[in-house]
């Protein structure tokens, strides 16, 4: 039986049975923010939310999210896809740093997410921004591919293209993606019971930074037409860059994130830069409230899994170097045998044959 544990609100347990699927257990945590997208990344590919009563069982959703689920079941399936993408993309983007998105790699038997994402750190800022960008990105692409019946291709741009270019194809529907993505991911933070006002402001701000990065990633893509590939005419559309490129942009913002404090500004409290509070927070900068641990040693209270046994690069001068990754503790070498294709030959017509070659590679892991 599908088993879904909803947490961060008073805990309720919901049980799902999806016809046509195998019986197995899936335990995950839902929280009052975008990280609920991350936790459902544990869902097997066979999971399908295809009946409105399934939405009623998701008691951890706030009312507007549940209503969105009931009115658009396909959208919830897209959100599950987005959750998997967040986890995968985050881990790839930070694979060379001490914090490698371990916070969102939630074990299926864990009672909740790791605490570093609940403390208003710069890591939480990145996760929120990436989550918001990913859900809108996934929805926009789903419109283009025809996976969502309530939307279609993006609108044709109003500007007149240059000579030799013409608008056509099927552009990503970023407008629909942003609307539906923000409706779902921002809804919990607009509830009165959703934590401190400072945390809500931080998370809403960083989610919008993620969506702004997505807007900046909408570029013109073209396909050539002409005799013998002459490209005399180009058919163009507006399409989104790959999520990995957007994540790298957000990583840059993460590295230069601004620490803020929650203090009165005029008639209400707002987030302002801690060290330079003479200016407001910029719309395109990630912000955080609490400093992060160094992530060198395991510390469950701070959400750090440490870097022991992490692979490092002995010749690197960057964050993946053995000196920085291992925090001065040193490292151990080991030898790994790689099997690769080699001595490939092309045979007319038309196949390639290769041999298999073995070579030994020296690797290093932190003590």
| Helix segment tally | 9
Largest sheet: 3 strands, mixed
Number of strands: 13
* SSE pattern, N- to C-terminal: EEHHHHHEHHEEHEEEEEEHEE
Radius of gyration: 24 Å
Query: Beta fraction of the residues?
Result: 15-25%
Quaternary structure type: single chain
Provide the helix percentage.
25-40%
Distance between the termini: 42 Å
Count of spatially separate domains: 2
Alpha-beta content class: alpha+beta
Q: What integer is the average pLDDT?
A: 81
Strand order within the widest sheet? Answer: 3-5-4
Q: Uncertain spans, ≥5 residues at pLDDT below 50?
A: 1-35, 38-44
**Overall outline:** globular
Could you describe the 3D structure shown?
Belongs to the Wnt family. One of its GO terms (molecular function) is cytokine activity. This is Protein Wnt. The two termini are about 40 Å apart. About 30% of the residues lie in helices and about 25% in strands. It is globular. The protein has a three-stranded mixed β-sheet. The protein contains nine helices and 13 strands. The chain has two domains: about 1-305, no CATH class; about 335-360, no CATH class. α3 crosses α4 and α5 runs antiparallel to α8. β6 and β7 (about 270-275) form a beta hairpin. It has helices at about 35-40, 50-55, 65-70, 75-95, 120-145, 175-185, 195-215, 245-255, 320-325; strands at about 1-5, 10-15, 165, 220-225, 235-240, 260-265, 270-275, 285-290, 300, 305, 310, 330-345, 350-365. The longest helix is centred in the middle third of the chain and has 24 residues, at about 120-145. With about 375 residues, it is α+β, with helices and mostly antiparallel strands. The model is unreliable at about 1-35 and about 40-45 (pLDDT under 50).
């Amino acid at each position: 039986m599908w088993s879904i544990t909803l947490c961060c609100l008073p805990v309720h347990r919901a049980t799902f049975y999806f016809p046509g699927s195998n019986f197995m257990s899936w335990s995950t945590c839902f929280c009052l923010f975008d990280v609920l997208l991350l936790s459902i990344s544990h869902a097997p590919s066979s999971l399908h939310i295809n009946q409105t009563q399934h939405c009623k069982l998701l008691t951890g959703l706030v009312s507007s999210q549940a209503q969105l689920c009931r009115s658009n079941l396909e959208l919830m399936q897209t959100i599950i896809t987005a959750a998997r993408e967040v986890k995968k993309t985050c881990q790839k983007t930070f694979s060379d740093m001490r914090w490698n998105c371990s916070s969102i790699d939630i074990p299926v038997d864990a009672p909740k997410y790791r605490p570093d994402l609940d403390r208003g750190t710069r890591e939480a800022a990145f996760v929120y921004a990436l989550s918001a960008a990913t859900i809108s990105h996934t929805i926009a692409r789903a419109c283009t591919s025809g996976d969502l019946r309530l939307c279609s291709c993006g609108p044709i741009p109003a500007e007149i293209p240059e000579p030799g270019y013409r608008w056509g194809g099927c552009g990503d529907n970023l407008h629909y993606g942003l609307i539906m993505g923000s409706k779902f991911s921002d809804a919990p933070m607009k509830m009165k019971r959703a934590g401190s006002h400072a945390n809500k402001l931080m998370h809403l701000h960083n989610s919008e930074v993620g969506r702004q990065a997505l807007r900046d990633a909408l570029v013109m893509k073209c396909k050539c037409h002409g005799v013998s590939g002459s490209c005399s005419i180009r058919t163009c559309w507006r399409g989104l860059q790959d999520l990995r490129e957007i994540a790298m942009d957000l990583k840059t913002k993460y590295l230069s994130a601004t620490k803020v404090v929650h203090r009165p500004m005029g008639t209400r409290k707002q987030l302002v830069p801690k060290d330079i509070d003479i200016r407001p927070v910029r719309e395109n900068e990630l912000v955080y409230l609490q400093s992060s641990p160094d992530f060198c040693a395991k510390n469950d209270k701070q959400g750090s899994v440490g870097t022991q046994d992490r692979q490092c690069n002995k010749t690197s001068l960057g964050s993946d170097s053995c000196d920085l990754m291992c925090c001065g503790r040193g490292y151990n070498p080991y030898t790994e045998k790689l099997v690769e294709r080699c001595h490939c030959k092309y045979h007319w017509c038309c196949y390639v044959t290769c041999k298999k070659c073995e070579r030994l590679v020296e690797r290093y892991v932190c003590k």
